[in-house]
Amino acid sequence: MLEIAVLGLLGESPMHGYELRKRLSTLLGTFRAFSYGSLYPTLRRLSEAGWISEEEPIEPPSGARSRRGKRVYRLTAEGKEHLADLLAEVGPDAFDDDGFGARLAFFAQTRSDIRLQVLEGRRRRVEEQRDGMKSTLARTGERLDRYTRELHEHGLESVDREVRWLTELIEHERSGTERGNER
Q1: What pLDDT was estimated at residue 31?
Q2: Residue range 1-30: average pLDDT?
Q3: Where is 111: in which H helix or E strand?
């Protein structure tokens, strides 16, 4: 998930670590907590794989508070290919909370048929979650106190809302594909 997010953001523009960290936090904060301690090891691994390059640090202007220059990271041609391969993979990790959020953030760079597969897979996953929640609530609902029951019903409403949202996205994606719109 972090790999897709880093490569996707660097595909938009080169940036230094601090800027990348801020953009990742903004992007992934919606979907999950982002561990800053995982960013630099990920950048090192992506660099070693040849998917990103590190440019010499930019020296801060004289009189600036920071004395260290900032290393700029840039997506390489191999990195672009690797990102395209990652975005084209449709497996269970593309449907879970973390993987889906990162994928959705870069849907504009993903082929329409792959977007549709990811959306349908996510909807199946959320429908299974909803069915399990309904079953649990039906089994234990009368034994729960009022507040715990309300909490479970609130969770069920959230999942129902996500299923409706995914259904709308799927319908929109299908209508775009039917018109021959691949992106």
Answers
A1: 56
A2: 87
A3: none
Overall CATH class of domain 2-99: mainly alpha
3-state secondary structure of 70: strand
pLDDT tens digits, 44-60:
999 999 999 998 765 65
pLDDT tens string 85-128: 999 989 888 898 878 888 898 999 899 999 999 999 999 999 99
Around 181, how many Cα atoms within 13 Å sit in the side-chain half-sphere?
Answer: 12
pTM comes to: 0.78
Q: How far apart are CA 181 and CA 136, in angstroms?
A: 42
- Phi/psi region, residue 56 (left: phi>0; alpha: psi -120 to 50; beta: rest), is beta
Angle ∠(135,104,1) on CA atoms, nearest 5: 90
Which segments of 30-143 does DSSP mark as H helices, in order? 39-48, 77-88, 97-105, 112-140
Distance CA 31, CA 92 (A): 17
For residue 15, give the nearest of 43, 41, 34, 45 by alpha carbon: 43
C-alpha span between 59 and 67 (Å, rounded): 8
**Where is 175: in which H helix or E strand?**
helix 146-178
Q: What are the phi and psi torsion angles at 52 (to 5°)?
A: -135, 160
